[in-house]
Amino acid sequence: IAFATLGTVADLGALQGENRSLVKKGLKLLQKSEWKGLKYLKQYSGISDEDEMTSHCIGYRLAPRINAAGRIDSPYLALKLLLSNDDEAEQLAEKLDQLNSERQVMTAKALEKAERLLDSQLQNEVLLVIVSDEWHAGILGLLAGRLSEKYYRPAIVIEEREDELIGSARSIESFNIIQAIGEESGLLSHFGGHHQAAGFTLKKEHKDEFISNIQNYARNTINWSTLKPTLHIDCKVNFSEVDRDFYEEIKELEPYGTENDEPVFLIEGLTVKYPKKVGAEQNHLKFSACANGRYLNAIGFNLGKHFDDLLNKETIDVVCSVGINKWNGNETLQLKVLDFG
Fold this sequence. Notes:
Blueprint: H1 2-10, H2 17-32, H3 36-44, H4 55-72, H5 75-83, H6 88-118, H7 121-124, E1 128-132, H8 140-151, E2 155-160, E3 164-170, H9 177-182, E4 188-194, E5 197-203, H10 207-221, E6 235-236, H11 244-251, E7 265-278, E8 284-291, E9 294-300, H12 307-311, E10 316-327, E11 330-340
Parallel strand pairs: 1-2, 6-7, 9-11
Antiparallel strand pairs: 2-3, 3-5, 4-5, 7-8, 7-10, 8-9, 10-11
Helix pairs in contact: 1-2, 1-4, 3-5, 3-6, 4-5, 4-6, 5-6, 6-8
């Protein structure tokens, strides 16, 4: 069950029905696991035995290290670790951690070049396509995902080899990327995927025709006005309702993940106190949210660029989820701010 839980969350399986029941049980097993491979993987992922194991721990800590082996080395390293119950497990966990760090550096450098290559496409194309012979096939999907998320439009990233191209695509909810790629099946050696993610190979001689055709298809399918991200709000709540009991009630909906998103709330009329930018790159916002003399800590990840907007408002309405911040053995309720206005 523990391994099935890892696979379900890491591969973005829908957390509904049987999957949700399996993952809920599996998370408890992962938290207490004495299997050396998993134990050392948690250790190198920064997860202590006292930390609550959540789907977020798998998706953002364990899974990237497992996947790093297959992306830039051999997937058998990860398999060997998960099956290992001897002293070699620690060495394998350390190796996966190193590979994940290498993957992060590799992805960051590739992303810098990808941004430069986009050039005029950002103004003229609803579907982004970039090609390079410098990228490793194992990070193509990561690059496509980052670009699609940042610019909110489908993106295709292609590694150019001697006579063959390897491509990975990621898309927005409103555009079926596998259908678009399938329209060019006659040019492709192989392709597969689903609505929002796909991969393919094609001969080098078909590169220009493929890119031209798929971008034309996108132009005829996507309206520029729809290329705006949307934020789903589950309901509006009063600030006075948000307390520890409220948090414990919504926590029953866990584990969160694909098709079982963490609940998102709208809270209106908050006063901002003690705002500051935090993080190594000062890219996060932290402040105290106040109403009727009551305060709650609030954190807005990647909202640092909106710091001045926060200063210029007497009161704000926030879209947020509700969580617990653990620090130095203390637990405090906090708002995880997704947007404000």
